[in-house]
């Protein structure tokens, strides 16, 4: 309760005097207040200046710009190394909170103040900071900056984060994030959202189109892509799907702020943060989709989770919920399909189309049907998940770190993941690989759909 602070009412004081006043104030607060009364804030009337917040705040409030892929606006905290990604109302905790997804220098010990804007009034609460355990040893990690809300406050629409011990009585120069997820919704525009978390130097146009078309056959109607950069051809495909309302591209330019590592461990490629800042992107996607999508799938464009007994995720998920319980997250076993090995000649009716695709960059996943033997489970990294986002608080690359329910490992005879990529030297011989033709049962529909998109994007002639 002592985290709700009184707003500044004092003139500029020397640091020592200020500290003394602060210590006394906190002590007073701690000793005196026991009831809800202490939560009643003194407020500061405040008008959001266009020059202060992100230029697009007004548009973002209208909602449409956000849906079209408004950038997660990275904001630095003045006087700290912290970077703020996005903010959401967290309805599931008591008291409610504003969650600010942040990237923090793990060794830096800071105390942060939430400046919450509700109907032109500024309210203050002291943030609690929780750095995710999955930082893989990099100096920066993803952090949840939580701003507790007093029960008698209105929900804030914007939040700015400042150092708690820096004196700024006029609150000048605050940079605000829009607080998303204002309302709890129980009906969702999308059934399944896939989150592709780190698109960097991306050129696999054919595989991307195949994956996106395949996901639609499975029942996916939203794909959020965190994009750093890609080839011109890939961009054409992204624009095409964005115009259709299927894809939401979130510009992900963390490399302008930090030295992002291109690998999963500092020993493989030293840098400030794990793999292009994939983890904050995934958490942003989870919260961004929370009241928009019934389920969220966290995987990459080279990964496809395929049901074995039914044809789509729409049919699979009710079966899994019946077997394992509702509101779970479901874990799907990874199987590598090395692109170094190719299918024996496919059925003749699909061959002409596949021949034309040869001019499009990237592997044709329909021709790589030999899998490496599955790794023993459970390993921390040999799976991906589909989850009800409203059951989950924190996600990582593989799975969930904090959730309301447990996760269930789906048996491979019900569904498993097909991960088609160049594997380099694995030492495996062709005799050790296992043929798995599940993808071919979609081949007719998939081939037609992919050819249509390649023609409509002028990557293939009509
Ligand atoms: C979501 O799934 C339901 C049940 O499978 C289906 O009736 C509905 O059309 C789907 N919604 C969208 C937007 O595809
Ligand atoms: C980008 O990808 C291309 C081909 O896929 C590769 O040759 C190149 O080294 C990559 N560049 C960077 C900066 O990763
Ligand atoms: C992506 O950015 C890197 C680094 O700036 C650059 O080397 C690479 O060529 C870019 N890739 C594409 C496909 O544009």
UniProtKB/TrEMBL annotation:
Stretches that traverse the bilayer: 15-33
InterPro entries cross-referenced by the UniProt entry: Glyco_transf_92
Signal sequence segment: none
Cell compartment(s), UniProt: Membrane
GO MF annotations in UniProt: glycosyltransferase activity
Keywords: Glycosyltransferase, Membrane, Transferase, Transmembrane, Transmembrane helix
Membrane topology: Single-pass membrane protein
One Gene Ontology CC term in the entry: cytoplasm
Family: Belongs to the glycosyltransferase 92 family.
Protein name: Glycosyltransferase family 92 protein
Species: Gambusia affinis (Western mosquitofish)
């Amino acid at each position: 309760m002592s985290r709700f602070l009184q707003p500044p009412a004092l003139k500029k004081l020397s640091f020592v005097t200020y500290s003394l006043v602060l210590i006394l104030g906190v002590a007073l607060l701690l000793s005196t207040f026991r009831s809800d009364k202490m939560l009643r804030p003194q407020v500061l009337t405040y008008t959001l200046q266009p020059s202060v917040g992100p230029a697009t705040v007004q548009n973002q409030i209208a909602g449409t710009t956000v849906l079209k892929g408004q950038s997660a606006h990275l904001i630095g905290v003045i006087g700290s190394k912290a970077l703020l990604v996005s903010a959401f109302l967290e309805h599931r905790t008591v008291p409610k909170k504003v969650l600010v997804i942040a990237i923090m220098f793990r060794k830096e010990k800071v105390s942060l103040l939430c400046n919450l804007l509700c109907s032109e009034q500024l309210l203050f609460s002291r943030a609690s900071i929780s750095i995710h355990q999955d930082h893989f040893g990099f100096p920066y990690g993803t952090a949840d900056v939580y701003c507790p809300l007093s029960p008698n406050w209105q929900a804030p629409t914007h939040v700015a984060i400042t150092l708690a011990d820096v004196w700024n009585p006029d609150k000048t120069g605050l940079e605000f994030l829009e607080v998303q997820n204002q309302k709890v919704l129980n009906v969702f525009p999308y059934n399944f959202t896939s989150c592709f978390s780190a698109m960097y130097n991306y050129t696999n146009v054919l595989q991307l189109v195949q994956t996106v078309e395949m996901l639609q056959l499975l029942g996916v109607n939203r794909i959020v892509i965190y994009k750093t950069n890609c080839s011109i051809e890939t961009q054409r495909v992204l624009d095409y799907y964005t115009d259709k309302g299927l894809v939401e591209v979130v510009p992900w330019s963390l490399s302008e702020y930090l030295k992002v590592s291109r690998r999963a461990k500092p020993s493989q490629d030293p840098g400030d943060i794990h793999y292009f800042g994939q983890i904050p992107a995934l958490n942003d996607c989870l919260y961004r989709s929370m009241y928009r999508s019934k389920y969220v799938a966290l995987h990459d464009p080279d990964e496809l989770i395929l049901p074995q007994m039914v044809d789509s995720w729409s049919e699979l998920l009710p079966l899994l919920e019946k077997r394992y319980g509702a509101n779970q997250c479901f874990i799907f076993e990874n199987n590598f399909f090395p692109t170094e090995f190719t299918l024996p000649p496919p059925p003749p009716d699909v061959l002409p189309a596949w021949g034309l695709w040869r001019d499009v960059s990237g592997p044709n996943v329909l021709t790589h049907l030999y899998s490496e033997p599955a790794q023993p489970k459970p390993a921390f990294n040999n799976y991906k998940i589909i989850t009800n986002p409203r059951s989950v608080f924190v996600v990582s690359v593989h799975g969930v770190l904090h959730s309301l329910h447990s996760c269930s490992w789906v048996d491979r005879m019900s569904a498993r993941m097909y991960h088609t990529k160049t594997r380099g030297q694995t030492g495996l011989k062709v005799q050790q690989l296992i043929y798995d033709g599940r993808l071919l049962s979609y081949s007719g529909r998939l081939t037609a759909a992919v050819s249509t998109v390649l023609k409509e994007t002028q990557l293939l002639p009509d």
